[in-house]
From TrEMBL:
<feature type="domain" description="EAL">
    <location>
        <begin position="23"/>
        <end position="277"/>
    </location>
</feature>
<protein>
    <recommendedName>
        <fullName>cyclic-guanylate-specific phosphodiesterase</fullName>
    </recommendedName>
</protein>
C-alpha cells in the first residue's frame, strides 16, 4: 500500500492493471464502434402479474466487440458518459428501439410496449426532446408504446428543468418510468410533482423479499402508495416464485426478471412472446 499523502491509501493490486487496460482499450474503441454500429439491443420481457402475459420489454444495449465479444453496458456506458459519446450512442439506441417496435407491430404480435434507458448526461442534452420526436416521426412508432426509463438522481439534479423536459416528452405521447426506485433520496410524494406513469422498484428490494420483514413492509407500502397515486408498478430482478407470489399479494402489476427470462436478442424475444402469450 502506497500513501497518497492524505489519509487514503492507494492499494495496487494486479487485477487493476487489467481494468485500466480494459478501460483504455474500450474507451479508444468506442468512437469506432459507434461508427461501425458494433452494438445490439437485447430485450427483456415484462410480464403482467395477473395472467403472466408478456406485455412489453426493456431494451438493453450490448457491445459486440470484434475481439472481446459481448461486452455488458456496465463496462462501457460509464466510458460513453465520460467522453460524451453517450449522445450519439443514446440516439442510436432510441432509433434502434423505435425500429424494433415498428417491426413488432408489423409482424402481427399483440401490441408490446418497449422502454429504453436514458443516462444522466443524455438527459441533460438540451435538444433531447426534439431528437426523440424526430426519431419517432422518422420511424413512425406509436408513442403510446414507447417508454423512457429515468432514475431519481437524474431528475433531482435540476428538478424544475427536469419537470419541463418530462412535460415535453408527455406532449409527444410517450410514457415515463422511474427506474431503480428506492435507491435515491426522493420521496414518492415529491416524485409526484413529476409527470411520470410508472415506478420500477429496484432489484435490491426484490432480492430480499421474503427474507427480511422490514424490506417486505417497504415494498408493500411502496406499491400501495404508488397505486393510490395512480402509478403503475413494476418489479425488476424477480428471480423466484416466492418473490412473484409476494409481489402478487401486494398488488404489483408487472414483473421483469430471470424467473421469466433473461434479456433476449430480437428473434429469441419474438419466439418467447409467441410461446408464452395465448393468441
Ligand atoms: P438497469 O436499467 O437496472 O437494467 C436491469 C439490469 O438487470 C440488466 O443488466 C438486466 O440484464 C439485469 N437483470 C434483469 N433481470 C435480472 C434478474 O432477475 N436478476 C439479476 N441479477 N439481474 C437481472 P444489463 O443489461 O447488464 O444492464 C445494466 C445497466 O446498464 C442497466 O441497468 C442500465 O442502467 C444500463 N443500460 C443498459 N442498456 C442501456 C442503454 O441503452 N442506455 C443507457 N444509458 N444505459 C443502459
Ligand atoms: Ca432500466
Ligand atoms: Ca433498473
Ligand atoms: Ca437496478
Amino acid at each position: 500500500a502506497k500513501s497518497t499523502g492524505h489519509n487514503l491509501y492507494f492499494v495496487y493490486e494486479s487485477h487493476m492493471a487489467d481494468n485500466i487496460d480494459a478501460h483504455l482499450t474500450l474507451g479508444g474503441g468506442l468512437r469506432k464502434a459507434i461508427d461501425e454500429e458494433q452494438f445490439v439491443l437485447h430485450y427483456q420481457p415484462k410480464v403482467r402479474l395477473c395472467d403472466e402475459e408478456v406485455v412489453g420489454a426493456e431494451a438493453l444495449i450490448r457491445w459486440v466487440h470484434p475481439e472481446l465479444g459481448m461486452i455488458s453496458p456496465d463496462q462501457f456506458i460509464p466510458l460513453a458518459e465520460e467522453s460524451g459519446l453517450i449522445l450519439p450512442l443514446g440516439e442510436w439506441v432510441i432509433r434502434r428501439a423505435c425500429r424494433q417496435l415498428k417491426e413488432w407491430r408489423e409482424s402481427g404480435v399483440a401490441p408490446l410496449k418497449l422502454s429504453v434507458n436514458l443516462s444522466s448526461r443524455q438527459f441533460m442534452q438540451a435538444d433531447l426532446v426534439d431528437m426523440v420526436e424526430r426519431v419517432m416521426q422518422e420511424t413512425g412508432v406509436d408513442p403510446e408504446y414507447f417508454e423512457l426509463e429515468l432514475t431519481e438522481s437524474m431528475l433531482m439534479t435540476d428538478a424544475q428543468q427536469s419537470i419541463d423536459k418530462l412535460h415535453g416528452f408527455r406532449k409527444l405521447g410517450l410514457t415515463l418510468s422511474i427506474d431503480d426506485f428506492g435507491t435515491g433520496y426522493s420521496s414518492l410524494a415529491y416524485l409526484k410533482k413529476f409527470p411520470i406513469q410508472t415506478l420500477k422498484i429496484d432489484r435490491s428490494f426484490i432480492n430480499d423479499l421474503g427474507l427480511d420483514s422490514d424490506n417486505d413492509a417497504i415494498v408493500k407500502a411502496t406499491i400501495a402508495m404508488a397505486k393510490s397515486l395512480n402509478l403503475k408498478v413494476i418489479a425488476e430482478g424477480v428471480e423466484t416464485r416466492t418473490q412473484f407470489d409476494l409481489l402478487s399479494g401486494y398488488g404489483c402489476q408487472e414483473v421483469q426478471g430471470y424467473l421469466f427470462s433473461k434479456p433476449l436478442c430480437g428473434e429469441e424475444f419474438l419466439r418467447y412472446v409467441n410461446s408464452q402469450n395465448v393468441v
